[in-house]
Please model this.
Amino acid sequence: MKQLYLHIMKWFLPVLFISYMAGITLFTHSHVVNGVTIVHSHPFKKGSEHSHTTVEFQLIHLLNHVLVTDSGLIPTFAVAALSLLCILFIRSQVEPYHRSCPGVISLRAPPVA
Model:
């Protein structure tokens, strides 16, 4: 079941993104309502006039003015930075010696510390 879900998501998410980008890029138009120009995009038939209700204009306004703050990015950045530091610190302790020429067989014994 999980494999089916992953297979569907593998195709659904790119198609959703491409259709969204096409919708906001290809169908941009404007309406003048009470002296205010409202520019938005959605698929519609070219050459025919269409209008929106007040509720639709409010929905367009809410969808176009989403505020995203950085409050979710700071903890994510901190976790990523700390993870990178831990990986670098642990790796430097685990592998203290490196061969100068990987894949080349040395004909002498390693140095004694």
About this structure: The chain has a mean pLDDT of 79. The chain is about 50% helix and 10% strand. Strands lie at 28-33, 36-41. The helical segments are 2-26, 54-64, 73-94.
